[in-house]
C-alpha cells in the first residue's frame, strides 16, 4: 500500500517519543477470530561497529479477553512486569 511505510515509521517514532504503547485489535487472517494485542515499540540497537543488533519495530504481545482468564491468581505465584506504564502478568503453575 502506498504510504504504509511512512505511517508505520511515524507511529513507531511517536510511540517512542511519548513512551507509549498501542492497544490494537489483531486479525491475523481473514475469517479468523479477533485478538487483543499490545504493540510495544522497540528501538534500533547498534553495536560498536554500527552493525544492527536489533531492528526497529513493534513487539506484539497477545492479551487475553476477560473470559479467557482461567488462572486463579491467589493459588499460583505470579509476577507483574511493568513496561512503559503497562502491566504484563506472568504466572507459573
Automatic annotation (TrEMBL):
<dbReference type="GO" id="GO:0043564">
    <property type="term" value="C:Ku70:Ku80 complex"/>
</dbReference>
<feature type="transmembrane region" description="Helical">
    <location>
        <begin position="76"/>
        <end position="92"/>
    </location>
</feature>
<dbReference type="Pfam" id="PF02735">
    <property type="entry name" value="Ku"/>
</dbReference>
<protein>
    <submittedName>
        <fullName>X-ray repair cross-complementing protein 5</fullName>
    </submittedName>
</protein>
<dbReference type="GO" id="GO:0003690">
    <property type="term" value="F:double-stranded DNA binding"/>
</dbReference>
<keyword id="KW-0812">Transmembrane</keyword>
<dbReference type="InterPro" id="IPR006164">
    <property type="entry name" value="DNA_bd_Ku70/Ku80"/>
</dbReference>
<dbReference type="GO" id="GO:0006303">
    <property type="term" value="P:double-strand break repair via nonhomologous end joining"/>
</dbReference>
<feature type="domain" description="Ku">
    <location>
        <begin position="3"/>
        <end position="69"/>
    </location>
</feature>
<dbReference type="GO" id="GO:0042162">
    <property type="term" value="F:telomeric DNA binding"/>
</dbReference>
<keyword id="KW-0472">Membrane</keyword>
<keyword id="KW-1133">Transmembrane helix</keyword>
<keyword id="KW-0238">DNA-binding</keyword>
<dbReference type="InterPro" id="IPR016194">
    <property type="entry name" value="SPOC-like_C_dom_sf"/>
</dbReference>
<dbReference type="GO" id="GO:0000723">
    <property type="term" value="P:telomere maintenance"/>
</dbReference>
